[in-house]
Each structure stands twice: as structure tokens, then as C-alpha cells.
Amino acid sequence: MSDLTSQTTYIEYGTRPFLAVLFSLFLAGFAIFSSLYCVQPMMPIFAQYFQVSPTHSSFPLSFSTIALAIGLLFTGLISDRFGRKPVMVAALFLAASLSIISSILAVWHVFLINRILIGLSVSGVAAVAMTYIGEEVAQKDIGFAMGLYISGTAIGGMGGRLIAGVLIDYISWQSAMMIIGVLNLGVATAFYLLLPQSKHFQSYPIRFNRFYESFVKNLANKKLRLLFLQGFILMGCFVSVFNYMSYRLLEAPYQLSQTWIGLISIAYLAGIYSSPRAASWGCRFGRHQVLPTMLFMMLVGLLVMLLPTLWAVLIGLIIFVFAFFAAHSTASSWVSVQSLQYRAVGSSLYLFFYYLGSSILGSSSGLIWEYAGWWGLTCFISLILFWGLFLAFQLKHLK
């Protein structure tokens, strides 16, 4: 009887708590990723305002994501001690407040320090949300819940880019940052009120030996190592495309305004659809089939974007975004299942490599853009994606 009672305490699809979890984490995904990625369409503005190069203009995003990657190594451990919901609530309020502060402190080096702090605060949600889903949601519904959470992060990334991209044509970038920060304060309040308390969380004291053991156990698993590398590849390629797409579309033959460049972010809608769908594809065809297929689709989208028409760029971008979010949803849910004993650290390590890819490839691809243009950038990203395909086929043989 006790086993049955224990099983029914997990949150299942179709119940009111399940809807509350999805909506709360959807809002959290929006808040953290709008805070993180609102600076991406502003990169050309930063280059002019702060008098820096295109590569340096990517630093506000890259510094945030490298801080996020580092923070992810520790936030899972902190949440093991203090709980999932308290850590996420504190992180959301802090990220929103720092976004408001960064709109006021418009000195390059101070602005970069503030972006580092935003990255660290965002890490309090990014890994812990995945762990919360893994602990509280019934196993059969984890893939679907994870996919919808990732849809929230997609809308957050799109919303941050879209809001900022449209606003900076009419108001200063500082005012745009202020609006996003105030909006996310409201989101943090709603999250605190709506998210159900954990029922399966067990507090652990912060001990270095357990911290070390959990990392060693996860890194000793070859399948997990390959999935961590997939995260590095996926996010690095994705951010590289969006970082320098703005520069490309400002130039001939497109010469778009910042508003229209911001509207290109509607391509994220494809990811909002594909993230939860990836769960059903994984159940039907197997994750080992879905992942390489989506990596190949990313390559196809990248090649379509080479065609010098705006429609081709938009269609290629939609294909690329669709495949990226499906691949990320597949890989992240795979990690959550694979690292069952040390799920929090497994999720943290996956996201560490994920955002490390964003920082390293996102900034280094700026040098490719400066010296070889879009064709050179396409060749560079294609090579990275071929590496991802090679690793995906290795994963397939490990099933």
C-alpha cells in the first residue's frame, strides 16, 4: 500500500498540479532566457555605443553564458541542501533585479561584470528546473514536461530578442533592458505563487566528497560524456548563427532595420512546437534515431540560409531552429533518465557543456565572421555539426 501511495504522489499528465508545474516552469524559462538573450539583437548597437568590434560585442552574452556554465556546477549542489523551489525563486528575483541595474550602469566593463552576475543568477533556475521535473513528475511524463519547459526557454529566448529588437528602433537599449527587467519581476512573483512545493526532495548537507563522487560517477558513464558533448555542439552552433545573423541582415542585399531583425526571432516558434514533440518521437523511434536526424536537419537549414534571399534565410532558420530544439529536448531528457542516481549533477554537467559551447563557439565564431563572412561561418558551423553527427552515431551503437 505504501508503494502505491508513493507512486501516486508523483505529478501526472492531465492533473491540475501538472498544469501548474508546466505553467510555472514555462514562465521561469521565459524569464531567465529573456534576461540572458535580450542582448543578442543589441550586438550591433553595443559595437557602436561602446566602440568595440563585432567579436567583442558578443561578450555581454558570452560572459553571461560562461558564468551560467560555471554556476551550473554548483547550483545543483546548493539546491540539494536548500531545496529546488527556494533556489529557483531567489534566482528569478535576482536575475530580474540585475537586468534593471544593468540598464542603469552603461559603462562597458561594469556592464560586463553585471552580465556575469546575471549568468550566475540564471544558473539557479537552468539546472534546478530540470532536476525538479525529474523528481516530481511521473517518469512516463518526464519527456513531455521537459519538452514544454524547453518550449518556455524558447519563448524566453524569442521574447528577449523580439522585445529588445523591436524596442531599440524606438527607444534606447537601456530603456529596453529596463522594461525586460520589470516584466521579469512580475514573472518571478507569479512563479513563487504557482509552483507546487517539492514532495520528493531530500535535503543533503553540502559535502565535498559527495560533490566529487557525483561528478566522477556521471563522467565515468560514456553515454553521458557523449551527451554532454552534444550539448556543447548544439548550443555553440545555435548561438553562433543568431549572434551574427543580425550583422548579416544589416548588410546588403537585406539592409533590414533592427525591428525586422528582431522579428526574425519568430523562427523560435518552430522550436516551441518541436521541443515537446521530440518526446513522442523519442518514444516512437528511439532517442538514438531522433538525435542524428535532427543534427542532419540543422545542417540542411544552415545550407538553405546560404541562398541570398530573405525568404531562404527565414526558411533555413526555421528548419535550423526546429531541429535544434528537438535535438536539445532529446539530449536533455536522455541525460535526466541516464543519470538517475545523480540526476541534479547530471543535468548540471549537461548544461555546463551546453553553455560552455555557447560561450566558446559563440565568441570564436565572431573571428570567423570578421575574416571570412557568412560563407566562412557556415563552413565552420558545418564542421562542428558533422562532429555532432559522428558522436550521435556512437551513441546509437551504445543503446
Which terms would index this structure?
399 residues, mainly alpha, 16 helices, disordered N terminus
Characterise the protein shown here:
This protein is mainly α and 399 residues long. The protein contains 16 helices and no strands. It has helices spanning 2-8, 16-37, 43-49, 54-57, 59-82, 84-102, 108-136, 142-167, 173-194, 208-219, 222-250, 258-263, 268-285, 287-304, 310-338, 343-397. The radius of gyration is 20 Å and the shape is globular.
In short:
This protein is mainly α and 399 residues long. It has helices at residues 2-8, 16-37, 43-49, 54-57, 59-82, 84-102, 108-136, 142-167, 173-194, 208-219, 222-250, 258-263, 268-285, 287-304, 310-338, 343-397. Helix content is 82%, strand content 0%.
Mean pLDDT: 87
Fraction of helical residues: over 70%
Number of helices: 16
Q: Let me know the largest β-sheet.
A: none
SS-based class: mainly alpha
Q: What is the beta-strand fraction?
A: under 5%
Number of strands: 0
User: Shape from CA axes?
Assistant: globular
Radius of gyration: 20 Å
SSE order: HHHHHHHHHHHHHHHH
- Regions with pLDDT < 50 over 5+ consecutive residues? 1-6
Q: Distance between termini?
A: 35 Å
Write the layout of secondary structure elements.
Layout: H1 2-8, H2 16-37, H3 43-49, H4 54-57, H5 59-82, H6 84-102, H7 108-136, H8 142-167, H9 173-194, H10 208-219, H11 222-250, H12 258-263, H13 268-285, H14 287-304, H15 310-338, H16 343-397
Helix pairs in contact: 2-6, 2-7, 2-8, 2-9, 5-6, 5-7, 5-16, 6-7, 6-9, 7-8, 7-16, 8-9, 8-13, 8-15, 11-15, 11-16, 13-14, 13-15, 14-15, 14-16, 15-16
